[in-house]
Automatic annotation (TrEMBL):
<feature type="transmembrane region" description="Helical">
    <location>
        <begin position="198"/>
        <end position="219"/>
    </location>
</feature>
<keyword id="KW-0349">Heme</keyword>
<keyword id="KW-0408">Iron</keyword>
<dbReference type="InterPro" id="IPR011138">
    <property type="entry name" value="Cytochrome_b-558"/>
</dbReference>
<feature type="transmembrane region" description="Helical">
    <location>
        <begin position="99"/>
        <end position="120"/>
    </location>
</feature>
<dbReference type="Pfam" id="PF01127">
    <property type="entry name" value="Sdh_cyt"/>
</dbReference>
<feature type="transmembrane region" description="Helical">
    <location>
        <begin position="156"/>
        <end position="178"/>
    </location>
</feature>
<keyword id="KW-1133">Transmembrane helix</keyword>
<dbReference type="InterPro" id="IPR000701">
    <property type="entry name" value="SuccDH_FuR_B_TM-su"/>
</dbReference>
<keyword id="KW-0812">Transmembrane</keyword>
<feature type="transmembrane region" description="Helical">
    <location>
        <begin position="57"/>
        <end position="79"/>
    </location>
</feature>
<dbReference type="InterPro" id="IPR034804">
    <property type="entry name" value="SQR/QFR_C/D"/>
</dbReference>
<keyword id="KW-0479">Metal-binding</keyword>
<dbReference type="GO" id="GO:0016020">
    <property type="term" value="C:membrane"/>
</dbReference>
<dbReference type="GO" id="GO:0046872">
    <property type="term" value="F:metal ion binding"/>
</dbReference>
<keyword id="KW-0472">Membrane</keyword>
<feature type="transmembrane region" description="Helical">
    <location>
        <begin position="12"/>
        <end position="37"/>
    </location>
</feature>
Length: 221
């Protein structure tokens, strides 16, 4: 409880939960990339997840806990910072501030909206126009669902914009994790910052490549 009552403690919990979601984003991207193998690749991957049964729900609950912790403390810390400086400075002297760091709350809220949309779209499959069916092996035809969805330019654009927000959020968030836990110094900070931006770009490219390839007709059934 003492950790929850201190600004440092809340920052640590927010950082740890955030990095938990970064690991999920990496694993999720790798799984999604099986779509480039063809229908059998991603359909087999989806079936494998389905066969895990309760373990998938345990994992989802853990991710939900991470999300709620990260969101709650992120909003709390933002409000506390704004309350400490209600009128702002005549001249902004935040030497190390970047566009990514200054827009963390907005990219975070954008990602929250996208997560809700994504769950309704490809997990719950309740959004209009979702193509449902099974393949020749009786597995849910995820390949057709995804390719048909991203043939719509508007849908593809939603995912591209969301991944741009993810890139900006992680560009600052990853290096901030090391800074919050005190795992960096003036000598290692440039390398950590560069590595964080590189990983952010890999995730951006990995996720965006799917809708762009489908929309361009490169990836098709």
């Amino acid at each position: 409880m003492q950790m929850l009552n201190s600004t440092v403690g809340r920052k640590i919990l927010m950082s740890i939960s955030g990095q938990g979601m970064v690991l999920f984003a990496i694993v999720h991207m790798m799984g999604n990339s099986s779509i480039f193998v063809g229908p059998n690749g991603i359909n087999a991957y989806a079936q494998h997840l389905h066969d895990l049964g309760p373990l998938v729900w345990v994992f989802r609950l853990v991710m939900l806990a991470f999300l709620l912790v990260h969101l709650t403390f992120g909003i709390m810390l933002t409000l506390e910072n704004n309350a400490a400086n209600p009128t702002g400075y005549a001249v902004n002297k935040k030497i190390k501030a970047t566009f990514s760091s200054e827009t963390m709350i907005w990219t975070g809220l954008t990602l929250l909206a996208f997560i809700i949309y994504h769950i309704l779209h490809f997990t719950a499959r309740v959004t209009p126009g979702v193509v449902k069916g099974v393949d020749a092996l009786g597995r849910y035809d995820v390949f057709t669902m995804v390719t048909s969805a991203f043939h719509n330019a508007g849908t593809a654009l939603i995912y591209v914009v969301a991944m741009a927000a993810l890139f900006l959020h992680l560009s600052h968030g990853i290096q901030s994790f090391f800074q919050t836990l005190g795992w960096n110094n003036d000598k290692t900070q440039p390398g950590i910052t560069m590595a964080g931006k590189a990983l952010s770009f890999v995730l951006l490219a990995g996720y965006v490549l799917i809708p762009v390839s489908i929309l361009a007709g490169i990836l098709t059934k």
